[in-house]
Amino acid sequence: MNTIIDRHAAHVLSIGQAANAPPFELGTPAQARIDYIAGLPILQGVRDAVASVEDRVLKTADGELTVRIYRGTGAPPQDAPSLLYLHGGGWVIGNLISHDEICRWFANEAGCVVVCPDYRLAPEHKFPAGLTDCLDVLHFMANSATDLGIDPQRIAVSGDSAGGNLASVVALFSRSDHVPAVAAQLLFYPNTDATQTADSYRHYSEGFGLTAATMRWFREHYIRTPDDITDWRVSPLRADSLADAPPAFIALAGLDILKDEGTAYGVRLQQEGVRVISRLWPGQIHGFVSMGRHIPAAREAVVEAVAAWRSLEVLKV
């Protein structure tokens, strides 16, 4: 078990300890959302300028859904590669503000169009509401490719943590004739097994940012009944088959309760014939890609994800 923490990650943990904020599970989801957004300026850096940013409101069968569309500097006006980015936050917190930094990085580093949905959150909207929103946005991107100036054959999906969970499930859905194709999946420390029984849950349950108690709190707000825990749409590692899934880049943090399930997902994808590029940051903590003010590896991870996207022969250069 590795417990040698990166000095930048240790600094971030010390900031959290000094703040002495109560853990999310001791309060309400509404308060957790307020506290999470309030803490972002401490962790995230100056936002990159991009060519354009636009918010649109989509009409779906379940109501209105806001998406934010970023066109990166250098993105071609037509037939650009594009990325559906699904923010993390345990399916309970997070919004268009919380992952604005990452979306701008992707847009500029890849010269692409990034679409980030403000999908519905639990517990007000339990599984599969948020997932349904993400699939609706994938359909929007494919159906509006000319208007968006994107190539419908080069839509990738990405996300971190719970967003990585949603991204991996969307990628599995894309194997269906009824869902637009996804060219690649770029996953950052994804949730892939909601049983929460992997060894990393014991090794890093406390003291490294995201705790096992908080993760249970997130899960219990997201699911409808215990049966949902082993549903592949909640636990993609438990899908009957991962064959024919889009090629994947998986970024993992070494001191993260989700490390083992992310590792297992990559191994199983490879065993079933899917091309996978895995990258482990041994001394990093969960969520480090959202901590760009203090952790240089945050942007480095996005740069590596873009390089992997290109090497998987999805992104033309």
UniProtKB/TrEMBL annotation:
Active site: S161
InterPro entries per record: AB_hydrolase_3, AB_hydrolase_fold, GDXG_lipolytic_enzyme, Lipase_GDXG_HIS_AS, Lipase_GDXG_put_SER_AS
Domain of life from the UniProt record: Bacteria
Alpha/beta hydrolase fold-3 domain boundaries: 83-289
Pfam families: Abhydrolase_3
MF-aspect GO terms: hydrolase activity
Keywords recorded for this protein, A-Z: Hydrolase
Family, as annotated: Belongs to the 'GDXG' lipolytic enzyme family.
Name this protein carries in UniProt: Lipase
Organism of provenance: Rhizobium oryziradicis
